[in-house]
Amino acid sequence: MLHELIGLGVEVVRSTDRKMAGMKGEVVDETRNTLVIEKGGVEKRLPKATSIFRFTLPNGEKVDVDGRLIAVAPEDRTKKLMKYCR
Fold it and tell me: Which of 1, 47, 66, 73 has the fewest CB atoms lying closer than 10 Å?
């Protein structure tokens, strides 16, 4: 299932940067290489390619995603990931 990331809850499950592991918040923006999350009025920019993220979908389902798979421009993600959904 493909989904817009902005507005979803997210947690960093694993990261090569130990300081990032366990970070939680809501995705408020993204670029090709980063997610911007906000929690308590503070925004943090997290690199996608070095982490495993756990997104919470609107229906409450939790999905773990390797950041390397989503390290593309948001507008190009659907085209790239469609090959994995077949």
Answer: 1
